[in-house]
Amino acid sequence: MLRHPLGTVTAALLVAAGLLWGASRLDWLRPVYDTPLRGRVVVDVTGGTWQPVLVPLAVLALAGVAGVLATGGAARRVVGLLLGAAGIWALVLAARVSAVGPAAVAGLSGTPAAGRPAAVDALVSGPLLAGLAGLALLAAGAALVVRGAAIPRLGARFSASAPRRALDPDRGLWDAQDAGVDLTDLGTGQEGDRT
């Protein structure tokens, strides 16, 4: 059992956001194009170019931190389901890169003019970061779905479940005066007007 589940889930989401952003900046593919004038041209394709959804997934992971801190109960489980689905999506994106063929990179931006794709090499580092981010998102989402109600909300220790007694010891006198009690008779135990 985790000692600080709220901190662990939050840290996992922050790590996932950083990994997804890093994966969008790294090269994922290295297609080779045959061109009529320059011969074979090699182009590096970043994760953000190949899968533009990586950056929105990173933003979703960051938004998940706010969702975890602000919600509780059933709402937190919904946040967990969304984060788990995002984690599965990131895992699928990372796994699909190995099956990319030359036809898939034909219309990418940055391809040489009149170039025909001849081969595609899938690189490891970008998809690996996306896969690790997917695992972190999936783990955080699963923790929220399974144990979301048991994980305390931020500031829950400071919220009052019952009204607190006034810190001012004289507050009772003010409350009695507001209720219309004659404060001169409080010492004798009698209330009301003396005539």
Detailed description of the structure:
With 195 residues, the chain is of the alpha+beta class. The protein is 49% helix and 11% strand. It is built from six helices and four strands, in the order αβββαααβαα. Strands 1, 2, 3 and 4 form a four-stranded antiparallel sheet that branches. β1 and β2 form a beta hairpin. α1 packs antiparallel against α5, α3 packs antiparallel against α4 and α4 packs antiparallel against α5. The longest helix is centred in the middle third of the chain and has 23 residues. It is rod-shaped, with a radius of gyration of 30 Å. 29% of the residues are buried.
What is the number of beta strands? 4
**What proportion of the residues is helical, as a percent range?**
40-55%
Distance between the termini: 71 Å
**Tally of separate helices:** 6
- Low-pLDDT runs of 5+ residues are none
Q: Describe the main β-sheet briefly.
A: 4 strands, antiparallel
The fraction of residues in strands falls at 5-15%
Order of helices and strands: HEEEHHHEHH
Structural class: alpha+beta
Q: What would the average pLDDT be, to the nearest integer?
A: 82
Radius of gyration: 30 Å
* Outline: rod-shaped
